[in-house]
Amino acid sequence: MPPIAAPARIPRDLRLDFFRGLSLFFIFIDHIPENGLAYFTLRSVAFNDAAEVFIFISGYTAALVYGQSLREKGALFATAQIYRRVWQLYVAHIFLFMIFTAEVSYTILVLQNSLYSEELRVADFLQEPHLAIIRALMLSFQPTFLDILPLYIVLLATFPLVIILLARFRILPIVLSGIVYAMTLQHGWAFHTRPSHEVWFFNPFAWQFLFVIGATAGYARISGARLPTGLWLSRIAMALAAFFAVVNFSWTLHWIYDPFPPLFARSLWSLSLDKTNLAPLRLLSFLALAIATVHIVRPDSRFLHSRWAWPAVLCGQQSLYVFCVGILLSVLGHFLLAEWSGGLLMQVAVNIGGIGIMISIAAILEWFKTASRRPQANRSIAVPATPSE
Q1: Domain-embedded: residue 6
Q2: What residues form DSSP beta bridges with 192?
Q3: Residue span of the structural domain in which 41 resides
Q4: In this predicted structure, what is the pLDDT of residue 9?
Q5: Which among 248, 272, 252, 271 has a CA at the least distance from the CA of 260?
Q6: Is residue 382 part of a domain?
Q7: Which of 94, 99, 125, 308 is least surrounded by Cβ atoms within 10 Å, i.e. has the fewest?
Q8: Residue 226: C-alpha distances to residues 7, 10, 131, 207, 216 (Å)
């Protein structure tokens, strides 16, 4: 496919960085069992959680970056660029897998608590490490918390086809993706882990729909295509998001205080449970929240440049590294709360400490990137004069 004349460069949308960074904080908090702060993350006011935010923004930014490459340098270069990123994600996943299993194995050895091996799904690794490593390299062995990167790798590996189709037939990818999603819900298409043969916790056949929705929106931005953005759509989205927030918050209050009645629990609870296959109610909840957020938070919002938003924006810009660190910290936080103290003060310390470390890592990476790009001052080297004969 020949290169297409590219429009002017699109300015960076800090909303993407901010909400991606915020989702990384939520993922860290939600991954710590018995963590009181988890009652105040996204899943307490919506049927979805931070995973949907992460995948949607990943699809959106993938279309922005690789769609621009496609339009400027052609399909071959864009595909090569995509698979370079796939390789980076794969290496990060394997690296994270090794540190994660070492962290869990050492904790089991020191605490003499074999229950962690089952809870964190590393028992097969401890029993047959030679087979578990091969399965991990094939992405079919996924301990607890190590299931979202394999999903992202699979989605990005198929992305060249999506981006090329978006450039030629703008509406076709989302139509085909929706059909695959519907067929998955109907017939149970799924990837399976080994050796348990369980379905991947994030089923790529289902979650690809959200990724493609994000990619379609992202490519529309660089191609100048118009998306449905009428005031009527925003009002419907805000009404749905508000309704879902009230319902979910009533459920949260019910979990905290049992006598409080959960609203519509009998009719909606079962419809929101299937995270593996991205239950339609979860998808609707996220889309309503996303449209309402886009309407409320504008690209030029002053808040995005404030010091309060800076930590989330920074972490969003260094998302891969921060995500990996957050996974390891959430496991460490789980061990601290379970073995040392699960009290309120300890929970606060674990949450503040973990998020503080994530922000610090992001700040160091940003400093290094900025310093490496800073032009060096030209310095002349004094050459001693040759003595005359």
Answers
A1: no
A2: 199
A3: 14-370
A4: 65
A5: 252
A6: no
A7: 308
A8: 16, 16, 50, 24, 11
